[in-house]
Recover the amino acids of this structure.
C-alpha cells in the first residue's frame, strides 16, 4: 500500500534533489517526504471513518452514559469513552466543567481526561498500521489502564475540595442530543477531516522533521546504549523530558518511529509519547483554571508513575513478543 509513497520519496530525494543513496542527508530527506505523504494520507482517511464513530458520541450523550455507571465500572466506561471521544488540551476545561456539573464523580472525570489524549484514536490506528497489531493493542490496553488506575487513585484520595469553587456553582440545563442521519454524519466526518488536518499538520511536519533528523544523523549505537531496554533509567528520563513539551499523539509518532529505528526501546519511546500528550505543560496550565495546584500535582504524579510503569512493562513484554 505504501509503495507509492516510497517511490514518491525516492523520486524527490534522489532524482529531483540528486542526493546520494545511503547518505545521512539523503536518508533524512527521504524519511521526511515518505512519512509526510504517508501520515497525511492516513490522517485524512482515518479521521473520516473515526469521525463517523464520533458522531454517535457527542459530549451530552457521553455525560449521560457515564452518569449511569458507578464505582469501577464507571472508570472503565469513562476510559473506553475517552478512546472514541475527541479531546485535546484546549477542550479540557469545558469538558471538565460539564462532567462535574452533571454530577459525575471527580475520579471518573479524570479517568476520561487521562485516557482521551493518551489513546488518541487516530494515532492508535496509525500505531496499528505502522507498528502492527501487537504494539497497537498493548498501547490501547495500557492507555486505558492508566486512565482507570489514575481515576481510581484520585477518587480514593478525596480530592474534590481541590476543584475551584466556581465549577460546582455552575448549573447548566440538559440540552437535547441532536439526532443525525447518515448524510449528516458524512458531512460531519468531512468537516472533521478538514478541521483536524488543518489544525495538526504543523505538528505532524515538525514531528516528521525531528524524526528525519534522528533517522539520518542520530548515532544508533549511542541511543541504543542509553535509551535501550537495558538502561533502567531510560523510561524515567523519557517521561521527564516529555512533560514540558507540547505535542499531540499524531505529531509524536514520527519521532517514536525514528527513535525505535535507532534502537531505542519500545517502552521508552512510547512513554515519551504518553508524557507529551497526557502531561504537557500547556495542558496543565489550562487545567489550572478549574483545579488547584495540589490536585494538579497529584494528577501529574499518579499519571507519571503509571506511564513509567507502562514503559517498563512494554520493555519487559517485548522481550517475549
Amino acid at each position: 500500500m505504501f509503495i507509492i509513497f516510497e517511490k514518491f520519496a525516492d523520486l524527490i530525494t534522489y532524482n529531483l534533489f540528486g542526493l546520494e543513496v545511503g547518505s545521512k542527508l539523503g536518508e533524512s530527506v527521504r524519511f521526511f517526504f515518505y512519512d509526510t505523504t504517508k501520515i497525511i494520507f492516513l490522517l485524512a482517511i482515518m479521521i473520516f471513518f473515526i469521525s463517523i464513530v464520533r458522531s454517535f458520541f457527542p459530549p451530552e450523550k457521553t455525560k449521560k452514559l457515564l452518569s449511569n455507571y458507578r464505582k469501577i465500572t464507571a472508570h472503565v466506561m469513562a476510559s473506553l469513552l475517552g478512546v472514541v471521544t475527541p479531546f485535546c488540551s484546549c477542550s479540557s476545561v469545558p469538558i471538565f466543567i460539564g462532567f462535574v456539573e452533571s454530577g459525575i464523580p471527580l475520579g471518573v472525570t479524570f479517568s476520561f481526561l487521562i485516557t482521551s489524549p493518551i489513546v488518541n484514536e487516530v494515532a492508535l490506528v496509525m500505531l496499528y498500521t505502522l507498528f502492527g497489531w501487537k504494539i497497537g493493542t498493548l498501547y490501547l490496553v495500557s492507555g486505558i489502564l492508566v486512565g482507570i488506575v489514575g481515576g481510581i487513585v484520585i477518587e480514593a484520595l478525596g480530592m474534590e475540595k481541590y476543584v475551584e469553587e466556581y465549577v460546582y456553582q455552575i448549573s447548566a440545563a440538559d440540552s437535547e442530543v441532536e439526532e443525525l442521519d447518515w448524510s449528516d454524519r458524512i458531512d460531519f466526518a468531512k468537516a472533521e477531516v478538514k478541521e483536524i488536518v488543518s489544525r495538526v499538520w504543523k505538528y505532524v511536519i515538525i514531528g516528521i522533521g525531528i524524526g528525519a533528523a534522528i533517522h539520518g544523523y542520530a548515532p544508533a549505537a549511542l541511543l541504543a546504549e542509553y535509551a535501550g531496554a537495558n538502561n533502567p533509567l531510560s523510561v524515567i528520563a523519557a517521561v521527564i523530558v516529555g512533560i514540558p513539551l507540547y505535542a499531540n499523539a499524531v505529531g509524536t509518532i514520527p519521532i517514536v518511529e525514528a527513535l525505535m529505528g535507532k534502537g531505542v526501546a519500545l517502552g521508552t519511546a512510547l512513554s515519551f509519547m504518553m508524557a507529551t500528550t497526557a502531561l504537557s505543560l500547556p495542558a496543565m496550565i489550562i487545567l489550572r483554571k478549574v483545579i488547584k495546584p495540589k490536585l494538579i500535582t497529584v494528577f501529574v504524579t499518579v499519571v507519571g508513575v503509571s506511564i513509567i510503569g507502562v514503559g517498563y512493562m512494554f520493555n519487559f513484554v517485548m522481550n517475549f513478543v
